[in-house]
User: Fold these one by one.
Assistant:
Number 1:
Amino acid sequence: MQAGYQCASSLRPSLNEHLFSKGKIGDELRHLILHIAQAAKYVHSAIRTTEMGLTGTRNQFGEKQLKLDLVSDDIIQQHLCESRLVRSFVSEEHKEIVELAHDAPYSVVFDPLDGSSLVDVNFSIGSIFGIFRGGSIVGKKPEDQVAALYTIYGPRTLLVYCTCNGVHEFILNEVGEFILLREFLGIADGAKNFSPGNLNSILDDKPYHDVLHAWLHEGVKLRYSGCMVADIHHILSKGQGVFAYPAGSRYPDGKLRLVFECGPFAYIVHHAGGAASDGKIAIMGKEITSIEQTTPVIIGSCKEVERTCALLTR
Ligand code: F6P
Ligand code: MG
């Protein structure tokens, strides 16, 4: 291909073209992201065709697994293997890190179907991915990711990626191609929407009670679906907002997972101009000590994250 070549077309750029022209990444990482996007198309289809029942098993966090959780996990695993670019991967549905080709360049962490308890009510659900260079992710931090992306399966299927050069949103079109919807998504400093997880804990947690009252008095709007992908996508899509899932008596170290959920979202939100904290330190700088690690999280508009953390730790 000639240097400086650009596709001359009136069509919106495909994910491949966008990764090529704006991703600022090499071919290997571009191909890995395309393999993940391909897996997401199969998950999109599985959601429409797989029966909704439980499997009778539980994942490493003790949560009941749906057939769809395992089907999605299988689809993603297969695509990661076929890419020949993955040294190891770890899924929220597994207890262990799975080692693949020892000389492959990347490790992938993923939550195959976030919000799967909402499948029966037909709410939006999603898949979350973080990509690291090299092998084991233990000892690394979310800021070490070289890319993070998520897909959201709602009335439409979207994919949002970040490779350290902005956050970009794609839609799955009728011929099965992810094409650009919006690029360089940004998050403003102040929040007009709030998304409060672990709300029951306000009964015995005065600081969180105060945070909630501050939001209510300021007239910010409640937007909480029970699926982190959908709730964070709301913030990225509207360009402002705050999502919190603080610790409480029920979840002393928070409920959400650093590796599979908070880490990839911290990376994406940070690159959109927002922030993510566990109340004391930035999620981006938090060391991964185990794959099961959970963390409190306050994420979204910078100033609101800062204020919420200050109120929670008073
Ligand atoms: O994966 C965990 C998850 O389903 C997130 O997607 C979501 O934000 C959270 O749990 C919801 O938790 P709760 O049911 O306590 O509101
Ligand atoms: Mg999840």
Note: Residues 114-115, 197, 226-228, 256 surround 6-O-phosphono-beta-D-fructofuranose (ligand 1) (CB under 6 Å).
Number 2:
Amino acid sequence: MKDTASPEVTLAGVGLSRRYGNNLAVDDVSLELKRGEILGLLGPNGAGKTTAMKMITGNLAPSAGSVNVCGIDLIDRPTAAKAKIGYLPEIPPLYKELRVDEYLRLAGRLHRLPGSALGDAVQRAKRRAGLSDMGQRLIGSLSKGYQQRVGIAQAIIHDPDVVILDEPTVGLDPNQIREIRSLIRELGNEHSVILSTHILPEVEAICDRVQILHRGKVVFADAISGLRAFRGGHSLQVSLRRPPQLEDLQKAVQPAQVEQVGEGVFRVIAPPGQDSTDQLLRESLERDWGLYQLSPAQASVEEVFVHLTRQDDAGAVMTEDSRMETPA
Ligand code: ADP
């Protein structure tokens, strides 16, 4: 690919694939990141997230495809392209016997920062990662949450345009997770960020857009609002004291689809753009079904994956355009 990316696009991966022997770990994945945007790469373990991230950071050669960082081709000009990227791998590259300041100076030198700029760069990275008072602490003596902050500080030490974080909250406790998520949101104000995770609410809490990977392929790509709509903007959960037979309920609310999810509890999924609420209220009053609960339903993470996997097995890719055309 030539160095022609538009200035607003900080990172573009096109047609990326990677084989390990016979295993196609990443299969024709494309992604684009704009300045100031946080993109979530979501997928279960083994989906290909780490492999994709290693390719877009120049740590693993793709079997096919290209990566362009701020207009610079990663394969043609790796040193210049990598200078624009900060990377926090799944296992942070920390030297636990070093003090925070020592380690960040080392990270800065590895990124070829001149000696005169190191002091300021370390101070700035520490401030942004919430480590200002921690410079003299041994990394090994810090909590896991603070060690992760050090990992993020080394990723931003050279003030890169793009920051890539692989499963940054794994192994942290709930308070640490909250702090690291808020730190990532702040990073998104100045940098473009790609974040991988297997936790759907994490993507909803932090990201502007999401790409869902399944068996190496992109099975969903949309804004977070699109993901929320996909999870159930048009689904209702209804509880009935005197439920009819499933077929009768199905007939009464068609064209919506009905699934039974518990004793007297049903999920009613309306076609895109339609709402079954009024119809359901009317029918349940007329037929005396003893309606006592009616609420919007959100598909669980498992349901989202099952649904997308079904699409994937049918050969379809869920994108902004095709999302609503396929019934749930
Ligand atoms: P994720 O980060 O989503 O958990 P990975 O990118 O780690 O997924 O793995 C994707 C697939 O590639 C998995 O089937 C995994 O077993 C395989 N894989 C990853 N790294 C290697 C490797 N170094 N050698 C062989 N297979 C690998």
Note: Residues 235-296 form a domain with the Alpha-Beta Plaits fold (CATH 3.30.70).
Number 3:
Amino acid sequence: MAEAENFIQAYIDEDLAAGKASAIRTRFPPEPNGYLHIGHAKSMFVNFGTAEKYGGKCNLFFDDTNPSKEKTEYVDAIRRDILWLGYRWDKEVYASDFFDTIYAFAEKLIAEGKAFVCDLSPEEIKNTRGTLTEPGVESPYRNRSPEENLRLFREMRAGKYRDGEKCLRAKIDMASPNINLRDPVIYRILHATHHRTGDKWCIYPMYDYAHPICDYLQGVTHSLCTLEFEDHRPLYDWVGIELGFSPKPRQIEFARLNLTNLVMSKRYLKKLVEEGTVHGWDDPRMPTLAGLRNRGIPAAAIRDFCARIGVAKANSECEIGYFEAVVRDYLNACAPRAMAVVDPLKLTVTNYEGEEDVEFDVNQTAEGAGTRKIKFGKTLYIERSDFSLDPPPKYHRLRIGGYARLKSAYIVRCDEAVTDGTGKVVEIKCAYLPDSRSGSDTSGVKAKGVLHWVNAARCVDAVLKRYDHLLRDADYAGQDFSERLVKDSEHVFAVKAEPYLDGAAEGEAFQLMRTGYYKTCREDGKLVLSEIVSLKDNFNK
Ligand code: ATP
Ligand code: MG
């Protein structure tokens, strides 16, 4: 067998060696109460990846025990996003598939004196739970007979009581140092319509009780979850032991993925959608998989990122810049280059007439990508910031009397700037050097600056969108999400793009020279260039 790549695999190896497990089965367990985010991609990487490593299987398990928050819309979105990311589950299973068995197990616990119906209110239960230093107080209903408990539990199921009026609690130990073992609630009354079982049930099992049962019934050998469940493991094990599960699934916890500048909580993401801060769950600024897909980020880059950050036992926060660097590596290798001018300034080549084809490199980093033809002409647009009347030191772009190369075409010399009444430059007039054509330059002139441009007679008007991160950076880490939220994080520009981009397939990724990686899309028939990731790599790998 290949060597363990992380501590989870080391545990599994132990279990295999000890004969505690044979065929490995894991599950990816989303609750269908929102869209998956990049944190879930890590969970998938761990669950699907571990199963694959051992030639095992991974189920898709919908943890749908909380009907008031769950919807079929989310189930559909979750399935779509997992498939997009490139994972294939074995069985698709729902906690609600097992509601009958979960209920029968509860009656078994009652019959054996291991669970009781409690009339304390949720508030009273919370207040009698004790603290880390003080034991809890036993419920006055703790010693009801199994017969009475069974009758009451059946009445709960039959709908005799209101929400919160009664609940079923495991009878464990109110003095346990682990608060989760202090007679935890395992069933609650909730008169709510479930997205799959409708109104069949008005009592629902709690996560900590249902999860080990569902794992066992699916044949899960290793239940891989995030660290916040570490304190719940004793309860997970209690359920398995008391119900006599054999072989009992093993819960192993790993660190959550946290990324700077991103919110990783479905609850908060939902708030952003509902309050209109973003356009929807798939807004390109969202850390949801739907958002990342819409942003133009390749699924393979996300999987690769998860593999590179690894699986650890301790929580930490990963720089968003690292994720972006991985994405940039992918796009750099495959995205064709193109030109668009964000803040156009007219450039007239005074000594040039007509037009001609010049050869533009499709992607210098991709071997064999070759060139494509673009039309050079008399009237062009360049970036306003590529000309200065009063250039700072080391300015290699255009100035009066200065030279620069127009990408793939000629070196030009700027002779004159035309200003309007307010002194704003509205046009520059340049002369081109006929013997400076790219690839056959014999001019002898050194032009350090290479500028991108578009042909004014052929370019198309497009909309370019740039995005800020949703949250301010790590310096604000302790603060509440709403305080860190960047309010206006979408920036829209009217730009001039080469006609080639207008003919590109919807959703294609380009490197807009000197601007960034952008994806093409259409809004009301108009070309939109939507930022995937900036060009600047400010992350030190
Ligand atoms: P959220 O807090 O965003 O709602 P959750 O944990 O409630 O997340 P679930 O749908 O219950 O969301 O998560 C499914 C699985 O994904 C769980 O096993 C959970 O531990 C895991 N998971 C959720 N967020 C992360 C994360 N940031 N990093 C790694 N795993 C995660
Ligand atoms: Mg959850």
Note: The chain is about 25% helix and 25% strand.
Number 4:
Amino acid sequence: MKLPLNIDLKGKTAVVTGGGGVLCSTFAKAIAACGAKVAILDLREDVANKVAEEIVADGGIAIGVGANVLDKAVLENAKKIVNEKFGSCDILINGAGGNHPKGTTTNEYYFEGDIKKDITSFFDLDPQGVEFVFNLNFLGTLLPTQVFAADMLDKEDSVIINVSSMNAFSPLTKIPAYSGAKAAVSNFTQWLAVHFSKVGIRVNAIAPGFFLTDQNRALLIDEKGEYTERSKKIISQTPMGRFGEKEELIGTLLWLLCKEASGFVNGVVIPVDGGFSAYSGV
Ligand code: NAD
């Protein structure tokens, strides 16, 4: 893998949750290319194994581990596997996350009478859908941190990176649950950075702008393979006028992992968004 920065992570053990997914498999590959031993944790064990195999085929060191970030006992077991194979954890990337249709309204705005129509209005949002999204993004960041940060307490240079989103800065229409949950991830990033500041663990977050992945493809590309109205709106609000490429997150990731480069950076949420969060639309 071609890297935008060369940093040395030899001897380090990294855990990447959601590492079977589009963005975090790229993160896992970049971290492995810097020499770290990488454990890819994902609900989809087959996909985690496949990413690990690709890393190994490329000369890196990796294992896939099937794990649900919402099940602490399963995470403890995953930690045992990681510790046995690779030693204690130095780097944790909390990448597992996502939205759910039941936490999503059909329309951007509420119009009189919508409650009676065959759509999901605000009043029809399913509490279980909302709970699913909050759990996956927030608890799914907190629980792996409880489990893997235990390894980091006596080290000088450990790093946790959470994955937030644009909607944490200001909510996106239709997705109140995901927006609130990612705002909670950003807030928790600051809280954790303060909490762990005396024990040498730096905690930061990356807030990706808009990247086409499995999670959002149905919202952004129509059946004909063309941009949806929402895609066109996103691009018109992104000063750089395009979606991001997942490789464009790697420079920020590696910079945040490298003590020499970012050793005094703690508790920040960094947008990588082509200017989306800076643009008021006027
Ligand atoms: P993705 O769907 O490709 O990857 C998410 C991965 O998480 C999947 O492999 C999935 O199997 C795994 N996962 C889901 N639930 C899990 C659970 N309970 N336990 C363990 N693993 C679980 O999505 P992505 O776009 O690569 O997203 C990665 C992260 O980036 C997510 O936190 C997402 O919210 C965030 N994000 C994505 C974008 C974007 O434009 N794609 C923008 C901002 C933030």
Note: The chain has nine helices and seven strands.
